[in-house]
Amino acid sequence: MINLHRFDLVSLRLYLSVVEAGSLTAGAAHHGISLAAASKRMAELEQHCATTLLLRGKRGVTPTPAGQSLYRHALDVVARLEQLALSMDDFRSGAAGQLRLWANTSAFAGFLPRLLGAYLAAHPGVVIDLEDALSEDAARAVSSGTAELAVVGENTPLEGLQSLVCDVDELVLVAPPGHPVAAQSTVALAQALDHDLVGLARSTSLMRRVAAEAESVSRPLKLRIQVRSFDALCHMVAEDLGIAILPRAAALPHVVARGLRLLPITGMRTQRRLLLVMRERARLSAPAQALVVMVEARWN
């Protein structure tokens, strides 16, 4: 039987980074060590496990079946140790606990600030560690133990994670007043796609959803400008640089302030759900459990 005491936490962290990046070089760079040092650690890990964990090729590395198994277990071990260390830091700092939450841009522009305001009113001793991130990055943060909870778009890969609906919004079209579609009561998706669009980065869950809808009607996505926030997006629309598809909650604050037109879209599924994701609900900290209960109360 393999000696459990010989597993090195540093090497396990490095192994996770190498597998996720598909590259020994990238994994080494992420941890600030040389390629030679990283190669040595991986060789020692394979020697300890008495099996090949990584297949090396011209395009990087891929895990063997044994390597995939190690990855899944190492992910859980490292995540638990991260949570243990952070929990002890909380008590040492005198806080009643810490809520570690990553969320996508739509959550920040919509329901999340109000929810967290109510949460802090009910739990004033909790410190919130909040990060704005892409949905896939937020889900990975939960998988790795960097965050306990994340708010992501419903089209985000969630292998091994649990989830529940935390918000439902409607996708709408926003246009400047002089735009050809601005005088209409509704706009068909196919018609909207005839025009230049302003959007977030293509990798966001929102733009992946818009791209999928465009593909469903066999139309190209004319994404003229990509920005990082809904505020910047609406500013570009106000300057007549394109129209935009975005959640209603994110659009409303800018419609009156910038004199924009908000229009319902036909020809596509406009309802969009955001999900609260976690590893295992039963193992959440008390602060994270409390937020889950509050989210459930919104929908019951």
Automatic annotation (TrEMBL):
**CDD domains assigned to the protein according to its UniProt record, in alphabetical order:** PBP2_LTTR_like_1 (cd08421)
InterPro entries linked to this entry: HTH-type_LysR_regulators (IPR050950), LysR_HTH_N (IPR000847), LysR_subst-bd (IPR005119), WH-like_DNA-bd_sf (IPR036388), WH_DNA-bd_sf (IPR036390)
Name a single GO cellular component: cytosol
HTH lysR-type domain residues are 7-64
Swiss-Prot/TrEMBL keywords: DNA-binding, Transcription, Transcription regulation
Annotated GO molecular function terms are:
DNA binding; DNA-binding transcription factor activity
* PROSITE patterns, alphabetized: HTH_LYSR
Q: Which family does it belong to?
A: Belongs to the LysR transcriptional regulatory family.
This protein is called: HTH-type transcriptional activator CmpR
* Gene giving rise to this polypeptide: cmpR_2
